[in-house]
Write a structure and sequence with these properties.
Largest sheet: none
Oligomer: single chain
Mean pLDDT: 84
Helix content: over 70%
Order of helices and strands: HHHHHHHHHHHHHH
Number of strands: 0
């Protein structure tokens, strides 16, 4: 109960900060925002429909990933359950600014017959798969754009290389902990050393220990099935292409830019924003997006595509997810575990 109240308080604080930032940005860039709104009005209906299709395609692939994660479980989730789970998590991702998405996924797994320990492991491993895809996609896109002479990439290549270095370290560490029992044990011993009784965060020790154990157990299981490992990474690539194509769909019909070029720019944008410490990349993604896309289109067009990108990847899934969350039936926790 105490942790739940703390989570609610943290979410309120995060939203308060976001609203304050939005108010400041509105008055600071009011003319640009109004121009962006006018730009949005000129976007063809077919482009908007295609963006909705890409959003639903993203969650369709997410459904395949979630379903495949349970491939060897007694209670295997069918594709449609995975699809609903993705949207269910999208609802909690927005209202908690990212922090509640993982818990929502574990709960959804559990409500469909998967034990909490297994669900926790699957959720953490799935997070690692996403980081792998984001890192590889972003690095390959950076190389492609750099050697094709993309102005924004060349101009900010130093910062991009720093971002690549950080995401590479994050991915390597996550994968190493997931597949190495020895390394996972070292992490647990370090946690026990620094979070021993009497320290400020000692209450977090059991949670960290259990999460590392579940993460490593599930990671080693999937790593033992190389085909499944490769398949899920591939699905993550396809999933991100769905979202990364949205700016291209919106901009290609107004400017002489290609959808593949915009996909590559979006891949670099997301990679860099993922290593900046902001809630769910909010603020970081907007900053990097405007920085890079303003080098190929006008400022107001970049701002308009950014607003719509957030709408199609956050607001639309949130609305659909809210309906799913409202209709979702609560079930008993499996195997006597508690969330």
């Amino acid at each position: 109960m105490k942790d739940k109240k703390k989570e609610i308080r943290n979410s309120i604080i995060k939203w308060a900060v976001i609203f304050i930032i939005l108010i400041i940005v509105y008055f600071w860039k009011q003319d640009l925002i109004m121009d962006a709104v006018e730009n949005i009005k000129s976007i063809p209906v077919y482009a908007s429909i295609l963006c909705v299709v890409m959003t639903l395609a993203y969650f369709s692939v997410e459904g395949l990933i979630i379903s495949d994660m349970t491939r060897y479980e007694t209670k295997k989730l069918p594709w449609h359950k995975g699809f609903l789970c993705g949207l269910f998590c999208a609802f909690y991702r927005l209202i908690t600014l990212g922090s509640g998405s993982g818990f929502a996924e574990i709960y959804y797994y559990n409500s469909n017959g998967v034990a909490v320990s297994k669900g926790t492991g699957m959720t953490l491993v799935q997070y690692t798969f996403q980081k792998i895809a984001i890192g590889i996609f972003g690095i390959l896109s950076f190389i492609f754009l750099y050697f094709s002479g993309q102005k924004g990439i060349v101009k900010y290549s130093g910062y991009m290389l720093l971002g690549i270095s950080v995401i590479t370290v994050v991915v390597v560490v996550l994968v190493a902990i997931a597949v190495s029992k020895k390394l996972a044990d070292i992490v647990i011993r370090l946690a026990e050393k620094f979070l021993k009784e009497g320290t400020k965060f000692h209450s977090k020790l059991d949670s960290i220990r259990n999460n590392v154990i579940n993460f490593n157990s599930e990671g080693r299981r999937i790593w033992s099935h190389k085909g499944q490992f490769a398949f899920i990474v591939l699905l993550n690539f396809i999933k991100f292409i769905c979202w990364y194509s949205i700016p291209g769909i919106l901009l290609a019909q107004q400017f002489s830019v290609s959808i593949p070029q915009c996909i590559a720019l979006m891949a670099v944008t997301n990679m860099i924003s993922c290593v900046m410490l902001t809630p769910s990349g909010i603020g970081a993604l907007e900053f990097v997006f405007c920085l890079l896309f303003s080098t190929i289109v006008t400022e107001e067009a970049a701002a308009a595509s950014l607003i719509l990108y957030r709408f199609y990847t956050w607001i639309l899934p949130f609305v659909i997810g809210a309906v799913i969350a409202g209709l979702h039936k609560k079930t008993k926790v499996i195997e006597g575990e508690t969330l």
